[in-house]
Amino acid sequence: xxxxxxxxxxxxxxxxxxxxxxxxxxxxxxxxxxxxxxxxxxxxxxxxxxxxxxxxxxxxxxxxxxxxxxxxxxxxxxxxxxxxxxxxxxxxxxxxxxxxxxxxxxxxxxxxxxxxxxxxxxxxxxxxxxxxxxxxxxxxxxxxxxxxxxxxxxxxxxxxxxxxxxxxxxxxxxxxxxxxxxxxxxxxxxxxxxxxxxxxxxxxxxxxxxxxxxxxxxxxxxxxxxxxxxxxxxxxxxxxxxxxxxxxxxxxxxxxxxxxxxxxxxxxxxxxxxxxxxxxxxxxxxxxxxxxxxxxxxxxxxxxxxxxxxxxxxxxxxxxxxxxxxxxxxxxxxxxxxxxxxxxxxxxxxxxxxxxxxxxxxxxx
Length: 365
Known about the structure:
single chain; 9-stranded mixed β-sheet; Rossmann fold; 15 strands; BirA Bifunctional Protein, domain 2; 3 domains; alpha/beta; 3-stranded antiparallel β-sheet
């Protein structure tokens, strides 16, 4: 009997992705379900939700069910990690659901690269993200951005951090009107304001957007960002499926944590991103670690939108046997049916809630 007959769609995808991660040398990392509460409170802005389930352990220490995996792995990174560490995980996180507005246990599968993040390492992570989406569906899109272009433009404004964060948020929602308003109220140069507004609207293929991004260069930070983005995109073309890659500068994350390439993955018929990641050396610096970091997570709960086996059969054959039939005869019949490659659910009662392909009644005769 094939394992595929008993695994759910989510479990099948999990196995494929873990095999994919392992093929690039990533090892599974296991962690506790909870961490010290202070870790999350001190890094609230890194989390997708400020709502955290907290409790006291028997010693009185305040702990929290982990709402994020990356923070936990970052906390366990050595202070000066120079040799590369390739880790992947399959963990549950506990967050408030965006739609339900209640806490939900969410299964995440992802990987983390620690150490010196050179161009190849960065491209490898992006390529694995692209291959992960392809394992789920051929109808996918990987949107790539670079925080360096945004950070460099905001640096040139000379604005305080909170105003930069406000503009960054409006870029994430492609809200040109609000970007212009904030720039106007803070006396940002018109040409610079125009470049920031243009950044929010840039979306399209690699060949289309790179030349437009080059026109937004204003300093060394933006120049380096565009050059790295160009190199990464050209490298990814080697692995094929370039048509499934777009550049989208509205893919932004907290500028105090992320410092380079950021990306999101989308699958047809799934509302919202099913994969997200990026480079976040700044997070490790905030935790006192001297190391580079890049990774991504796949939100496995989103796979429910693609599960074509929601109404799948619980078993191939429902074998209903008369209570007068000996256990030996039932065993013989079950073994006979299983030898033919069937899944068999044997019961002395009809089992109306069982979904089956074929029903066999085994009586005394």
